[in-house]
Amino acid sequence: MKIIGLAGSNVGKKTRTAMDVVLKLMRTNYPSAEVELLDLADYQMVFSDGRDYRSYTGDTLKVTEAIMAADAIIIGTPIFQASIPATLKNIFDLLPVNAFRDKVVSFFVTAGSPKHFLIAEHQLKPILSYMKASIVETYVFIEEKDFLRNELINDDSHFRLARLVEDTYQLTLLRERLRIEKDAEYDF
Fold first, then answer.
1. Which positions fall inside the NADPH-dependent FMN reductase-like domain (predicted)?
2. Residue 105: which domain range?
3. Model-level pTM?
4. Total tally of structural domains belonging to the chain
């Protein structure tokens, strides 16, 4: 099982801090899973121009191919100006419409204000649904007050992230079992 942790911004530290917690939980609790971090701050991505993702080169091709090869993706995104960052939206634009078909996608949001808790519901979930993702229904919303000196200090946030990791892994496992059972129905 291949799981990608996608830190969806090229600035800031809070989302990456929370993603580090998520990836540590995944590696500790599910050591058989192949876990990879894609932090968009570490890559030089070009803007989508409508081409097939395989025709890009460099970091853009590397990131999109890794996402397409994953069984599950855990997205971490900050909220900027009441919206998801352009870097994350660009990832969605680079990928084909059905990019997340047969993939489990879960996410957490970091925000400076509790007023932004519905951004995920009104922006991120519709995009993921359109792209055919099997979305883990509950996401984690983490506020600025939950961090201190680039460390996630809120115990409830840790608990909710652990649950997100468990739900993501279990749903991915279930989807794989269902796929195997479905494939077994065919005798060719």
1. 1-143
2. 2-184
3. 0.95
4. 1
